[in-house]
Amino acid sequence: xxxxxxxxxxxxxxxxxxxxxxxxxxxxxxxxxxxxxxxxxxxxxxxxxxxxxxxxxxxxxxxxxxxxxxxxxxxxxxxxxxxxxxxxxxxxxxxxxxxxxxxxxxxxxxxxxxxxxxxxxxxxxxxxxxxxxxxxxxxxxxxxxxxxxxxxxxxxxxxxxxxxxxxxxxxxxxxxxxxxxxxxxxxxxxxxxxxxxxxxxxxxxxxxxxxxxxxxxxxxxxxxxxxxxxxxxxxxxxxxxxxxxxxxxxxxxxxxxxxxxxxxxxxxxxxxxxxxxxxxxxxxxxxxxxxxxxxxxxxxxxxxxxxxxxxxxxxxxxxxxxxxxxxxxxxxxxxxxxxxxxxxxxxxxxxxxxxxxxxxxxxxxxxxxxxxxxxxxxxxxxxxxxxxxxxxxxxxxxxxxxxxxxxxxxxxxxxxxxxxxxxxxxxxxxxxxxxxxxxxxxxxxxxxxxxxxxxxxxxxxxxxxxxxxxxxxxxxxxxxxxxxxxxxxxxxxxxxxxxxxxxxxxxxxxxxxxxxxxxxxxxxxxxxxxxxxxxxxxxxxxxxxxxxxxxxxxxxxxxxxxxxxxxxxxxxxxxxxxxxxxxxxxxxxxxxxxxxxxxxxxxxxxxxxxxxxxxxxxxxxxxxxxxxxxxxxxxxxxxxxxxxxxxxxxxxxxxxxxxxxxxxxxxxxxxxxxxxxxxxxxxxxxxxxxxxxxxxxxxxxxxxxxxxxxxxxxxxxxxxxxxxxxxxxxxxxxxxxxxxxxxxxxxxxxxxxxxxxxxxxxxxxxxxxxxxxxxxxxxxxxxxxxxxxxxxxxxxxxxxxxxxxxxxxxxxxxxxxxxxxxxxxxxxxxxxxxxxxxxxxxxxxxxxxxxxxxxxxxxxxxxxxxxxxxxxxxxxxxxxxxxx
Amino acid sequence: xxxxxxxxxxxxxxxxxxxxxxxxxxxxxxxxxxxxxxxxxxxxxxxxxxxxxxxxxxxxxxxxxxxxxxxxxxxxxxxxxxxxxxxxxxxxxxxxxxxxxxxxxxxxxxxxxxxxxxxxxxxxxxxxxxxxxxxxxxxxxxxxxxxxxxxxxxxxxxxxxxxxxxxxxxxxxxxxxxxx
Lengths: 884, 180
Fold this sequence. Notes:
The complex is a heterodimer. By secondary structure, chain A is mostly helical. Chain A has 39 helices and two strands. The longest helix of chain A is centred in the N-terminal third of the chain and has 46 residues, at 55-100. Chain B is of the alpha+beta class. In chain B, strand 4 and strand 5 form a beta hairpin. Chain A binds chain B through residues 11, 14-23, 25, 27-30, 32, 42, 45, 49, 52-55, 58, 61-62, 600-601, 604-605, 607-608, 610-612, 614-615, 617-619, 621, and chain B through 3, 6, 9-10, 13-14, 17, 21-22, 24-25, 28-29, 34, 36-37, 49, 53, 91, 94, 96, 98, 101-102, 104, 115, 118-123, 134-140, 150, 153-154, 158.
């Protein structure tokens, strides 16, 4: 299989022979389209798939696909390569000639090259070489051969011509051997015998020189005539090449035609050239190379001089691709041939059994041909190129109408002529005469040309540069023959034929005054084509060609250009500034069309956009991802380059927020503080004592300070004693104490006469002290005990008896008020209607409702908790301080 | 002849996108000129701007076809691709199936593609993915819908259908009168 595919194939063969290919799989059809490996792909592929049933059909398919592109290529290639081949063939021959010093046999050797019908065969060989147009052109240029023949050689030629037919071949070869200098780069030798054989086979060797000329000319003609068939598809180069190839390929046929219908052919071809003059010109334009101009000018001038000196005679060239050099060479060849012809014709005219009239004509025509040739040379010296080429070629053709005839006659009579030895009759004299004539004619021609030049210059000065065609016409108008010329140009084909037929005849029979009018015409025609004025114009137009033509400027100019191109390069329909539409109109048109088109385009683009939107929605290719990407890209920043700017709002994000935390702490603290704050508590609740302490402590108010101290000391002992007693008191003791208490209290109350202010916790202590004092008064140790021991159970039983007695004695006065209490406390044992029995059960009963108690408790509790905490804290603080 | 409505365009693009995906864009936004879709007789035509302009000279009832018919809208306003759209789908197709020579004929007669006829398939072809069908010589033959994904295609037995037939170039002969 083709490597291309293999490389791109990512296929893997599965067990079931299913290939799985990637997305990048390149299909063969695409390859076909790209035209890279057309045939190889198809063939290779077919080879690969062995079990391919419909391989043939596939092949057909692929073939049918492929050829469409290649064929055109082939055609083009074929054309160019045909040219190349032919050229090379020619060249081979040339080189061969050079090698053996044979005379120019190229035209004849061209014959072997395939005729146009053999394209198919040629195409195969053409496939081999990839020579492009340019390379072909180069090759052609390099293959150009140049023959230089001196006058002496010509004389020799003439002599030899007049000599026996057996010498003919030698004669043909001799000039070449003596003077032929073939400028060529490639040397491929072909067997000279072959060449000769081919030459002899087709035409007489003598004709070769002329044959070549004629061939060339005919090839020109032929190319011209055969052009239309090729013109359609080919480019300019291709066209010219094609024409060339055609012409060269058609040589054989032409030659054969020559033999059969020479006069007609000449006459036919001549008008055609005039008709196709424009095309020819076109080709020349395409082929002409500007650098060649100067070169050819120099060359032309030098060669002209040489020619005039009679040193060099002619050159041969391979193709008429339009270079002036070649043209000139051709001319020289013509000259040479003419000379040759002259000689031969003269001889022929007298000796050959051919048409005497034609011979006469030829003879007569000689001067004129010479003249024309000389004029051509003059033109050549002016260095006019492609345009002139066409005309000059035409001239050549028209002039050469004489030579072809002679040639044809020779060709026809070739063998016979060979057989019949031609005697040389005053050759040298004749030659000299002719030469003189020729020189004279040349001078005359030069003068004429000079005059024409002046004329043209004058005319050109008047006429604007771009209106070359116009100027031309003006010049012709001034010419007396212009009318005829115009007629000529206007004459249709048939008439043209006759005209040119006449022309050829006229040219031949110029000295004869049989057809003066026609002669005039022809002279006019001659002038039309070979007059130097024209060449001048062409020269100028040559320069103009590369100048910017104002009528083709701008948009209107473009339109004009298009119009012009529609006519082709037809000079008759050249568009100058007169045909230009006014710019305003065009602008208006443009505007109108623009409006319309804009409106249409607007609609269409709108529709397109709408479609694209729908497509997006269909494919879910929304803009969102792109937008997000863009935002992402926007958001991305180099963090290292990022600096905190406190003034910027968006930089707040970089700030650390400590406030909420601190606030929380603060609030917490506040809350704590609040919580720690002591709720205001009514202290009355605490000091609301049911017992009338005022009365109880009233008696102690009279106690002294000294006693107090004692009491304090005593008290300590008593407290200790009491604690001990508490641990080991019995029910009996309690009872006794109770009785004591009950006895003591009435005493205290009686004795107290001072105001008592209660302060918190000290109250009890103070009361204790008071009680003690009181008791100390009476009974220093017992009193406080009783008062201290609110509860009779805590009373000491050690001094029970004494206390009882004393209290009974002391409090006799105050018993009356608190008789109930006294009685209740007096008695240890319960008695009937005992107070204690009544109070006791009340202890178990709720003093208030449960809710009230609860409320009280809650209030208390909070206060208690706070109290506790305070104390706790204080204790902690103390602890810390102590540690510190 | 009128431009497609948004609804119609959407329907058609949805169908087309099954075969060529986002390459539809290449059909709409072409560098070589403006091309557009036009509806005529329930058929969608893909036309260049130039031809569109030329077509304005022809009355609607006389106009049979213009440009390239991509398909038609059914009575239920669904879009059905015609084989004539193949020329535009084939170059842009994302998922392809190549038929063995033996399977070609069957497909060109309008049958579904069996596993036995399957020569090659693009990897990662999903089920019910629109595929363009080629011969092994890379000649586009039509298009269809993948009945199974690539992995399943490997496993299934030879007689099971792997691609549902949608259109094939045999229709040019079979349905000559229908194709416009």
